[in-house]
Amino acid sequence: MSSDRATNGSSGGEGPSRSARSHVERFRVMEVIDAAAARQASHGDMISLSAGQPSTGAPAPVLAAAKAMLDEHILGYTPTPGIAELRARIAELHETRYGYTVDPDSVVITTGSSGGFTALFLAAFDPGDTVALARPSYPAYRNTLAALGCEVVEFDPVDTERFQPSVDDLERLTSELGAPPAGLVIASPANPTGAIIGEDELAGIAHWCDEAGTLLVSDEIYHGISFGRRCASAWEFSRNAAVIGSFSKYFSMTGWRIGWMLVPAGLREAVDVLLGNLSICAPANSQYAALGALGRDAAAELDGHVERYAENRDLVVGRLDELGMPLIAQPDGAFYVYVDVSAHTSDSLAWCREVLGATGVALTPGVDFDQRGGATTVRMSFAGDAESISIALGRLEEFLAR
Ligand SMILES: Cc1ncc(COP(=O)(O)O)c(C=O)c1O
User: Is the beta carbon of 159 within 6 A of some atom in ligand 1?
Assistant: First the structure.
């Protein structure tokens, strides 16, 4: 990879040329979303099983808080780590969910979890540092780390039921690399699989990372959406880990762009300085509105969404075998199934385009999540309503029977 500046030897007059670091993979799911929108505009029959977001809006108390806020606040900048009340309420949320105490000073409010990742990676890693990811995983980790000059090392976990990493994987990777990685990013429930890492496995990984001096980055943004298996949090086992949270998924506030991090003490100053420079603060309006998401009334509404996701999950999982699209991993949480479409294609991106063209159903090709095996995999989201999902599955069945 080299910059256009270096290769052109451009000395001006040709407009700006891009940096070498900007040559990261496109986030393919966005292309699918654009193609799906075009299908809807031209045919009006599109059903999306591709969106990685709830089909619902923010809960009623958030909307009420947002309306009141316009009268009550001038909405200037907030302190960089966020308004004190929200930081305190998030500390309480962690205490209620997992039973551990959190000093509100370790809570940092971010612009979606995405804004948190960038600041955290910059704070913790230098160019050339190795950061490990299990395959498959959320593509923005790989692409953001690559843009920051980190050496991304992907590995295939030995656990082929859930594709979650284990201590054995980390030992093997360390002997291959000759040293432990500087960082390990994990997600549970994961995107694209929905698989939840076991409590004992997470404890083992957290302790291993402590010993090895590896920063464990635990993406917990799908917590709250699980179907029977417990979501453990990395801070149950180590305060050296960074925990990532978001209002985008369980709290159904994707476009409000608000998330948070629990930052280990040694990185707090660096994260604060970087976030102050990168974004000053997370959107003030979303910070005040998010307070409404953390009360009992919102929980009742949001838990209702999770019940619907659970029904949708059963509906989808029940049909996959008939469709010749077997599950790759256990969908314990989030709102995705990751399926094997090798019986139908060896080019999942082209196949998703074909399916969209023939049926109006939008699916996400696996290539985003796994550059090695993703050509024969697809992610389906069941965040929508059951009726649309049933219709989409019916259309897929017809398509596959042709
Ligand atoms: C695993 C995972 N992490 C992080 C994100 C980013 O979410 P946000 O920036 O909306 O919090 C996503 C979005 O789909 C995701 O799936």
Answer: no
220 lines ligand 1 (CB under 6 A): no
> Could you tell me if 166 and 284 lie in one domain?
yes
| Distance between Cα 114 and ligand 1 center (Å) | 6
> Are 283 and 346 in the same domain?
no
pLDDT tens for residues 199-227?
999 999 999 999 999 999 999 999 999 99
User: In this structure, are residues 93 and 294 in contact, taking their beta carbons and an 8 Å threshold?
Assistant: yes
Looking at 213-279, list the stretches that DSSP marks H as alpha helix, in order from N- to C-terminal side: 265-278
pLDDT in tens, 114-171: 999 999 999 999 999 999 999 999 999 999 999 999 999 999 999 999 999 999 999 9
Q: What is the Cα–Cα distance from 243 to 265, expressed in whole angstroms?
A: 12
Does residue 3 register a pLDDT over 90?
no
Cα(53) to ligand 1 centroid in Å equals 9
Question: Ligand 1 centroid to 339 CA: how many Å?
Answer: 20
Residues 336 and 359 in one domain: yes
The closest-lying atom of ligand 1 relative to the alpha carbon of residue 334 is 16
Is position 5 within any domain? no
CB 109 within 8 A of CB 260: yes
Task: Name every residue whose Cβ is closer than 8 Å to that of residue 244 and which is 6 or more positions away in sequence.
Answer: 113, 116, 117, 120, 217, 218, 219, 220, 221, 259, 260, 261
Q: Identify the pLDDT of residue 159.
A: 95
Ligand 1: which residue has its CA nearest to atom 14?
A: 52
Q: Tell me if 151 is assigned to some domain.
A: yes
pLDDT at residue 379 is higher than 70: yes
Q: Which atom of ligand 1 is nearest to the CA of 116?
A: 9
| pLDDT at 6 (0 to 100) | 52
CA 398 to centroid of ligand 1, rounded, Å? 33
**What confidence score (pLDDT) does residue 331 get?**
96
